[in-house]
Amino acid sequence: MVYYQAGISSLAVCFPKTIRTNDYWQQKYPELVPPLRKKRTARNKSTLEFGELDIWSQEVAPYLTDPFRGNVERRVVDNNESSLTLEYGAAQDALNAAQLSPEQIDLIIVSSLFGKQSIAGNAVHLADKFNLSIPAWNLESTCSSALIALQNACALIKSGEYTRILVVTSHLGSYAVDDRDTLAWSMGDGAGALIVEKLEQYHGVLGTKIVNTASTCGAYTQEMMVDSEGIQRISTRTGENASMIALTAVDFVRTCCQGAAGVAEVSLQNIDYFVFNTPTAWYASVCAKALGIGPDKVINLYPRYANIGPVYPIANLYHAALSKKIKAGDLVLVYSNGAGATATAHIMRWGNVNLGSIPAAPIRVTPEQEQIVTTLSEKSASEISLEVKNNQFSQEQILAVKPEERRQLLETYVLQVLSDLLQVDSFQLDSQQSLSHLIDSLIALELKRRIENDLKISVPMKEFFQNDRLEQLIDFLLVQLTITSLTTPSSVTEEKGENIQEFVL
Fold first, then answer.
1. pLDDT single digits (tens) 104-131
2. How many C-beta atoms surround the C-beta of residue 161 within 10 A?
């Protein structure tokens, strides 16, 4: 068996013709859009210790005053476009850029996330459009699908089983989320394609690290539904476990990137450029801060495309190469994290990669919006850590006061956390206000995470949206704390060599 070095020789992207700006929701669903909040100059105090969670919170903070959370534009399909038409466009463009005919491909691997079809993907349909009888496989690993397909393609080529493989991925986020759900603001459509083949020695993929992300299962929920035209499709919503995306983000990026560097026998300091998938406006900043790298080595296209799922590794590589941020001979690290699937990092030596045609330019996105800006210096982080230690709020503090005083203390706590997250003065909030009008899914996730971290109780996401008034959430928290106080272990007694746990009932 002969082993070769394998990697990307050509890549291309294809996006829908329609660019949807935030005006779409402001004009069609104005009730969904909260007013723009004025950002406070004072730094918010956090109840979290400085560390992995705080990195996420710091990078989220600048977007909490923006009702659209950093979303500016997104590309969306019209009635004449589909995941298959986008995939075909990207694939044909990648072939043209490499001056190859479809007949020179001997395997197609496809990932079609949220396509208009109810089957797993478009692999055989894409092969049919090219009039090819070669193997065509569907592969799915949510937002990591493109990189998992790349890893499989490289392994197959290095084994000598195949010579040249076409990898294609698409994402129809706008088709999977109802426009009346604010999650739709972050969903974009697009497709990407890359050709994988034998490369010259020391080029191509040098090291890979893949882990499963089972801890984020339930971050999003999917169910089959029938739309207004009687067509079955997948509907996506934010799930109960969405907070785990924030809780695990730093650990996953460090584990995968450091692991891939170990396999490639390089250090992260040797990497010339980093490409992260960017499912949120702040995700690239989180990854950069987690790895301790400068913003000049990172690309962020989120304001331009919103969340395009598994297409992002290809799109970010394409634009980085197009803008000469990546050059032949550079060491490049590509990372993606797919909720409820896999997180993976690939380190590759960039070669003379052929690029497809340039997509349409954005309408309103400015260069400043696509800059990576980490929010705090190391000195500021230390200052926040000191503030945290002096302003802790815990379950023990609430349970230590008389039962009749707990509700008032709990109300004060919740209003203060909301004040921090909404960046408004606490006197503007009261427990009679409608919670659903105060917060969206992002604020709800941050509020849930803060409460669960501080009070050590579990709060289902539904509690933040099914209650008419804030006081109902406070009542729920009070009940949970009361139950906790009744079942807290008071002592551990040894008897006959066994540990017997006594409960106050």
1. 999 999 999 998 765 678 999 999 999 9
2. 12
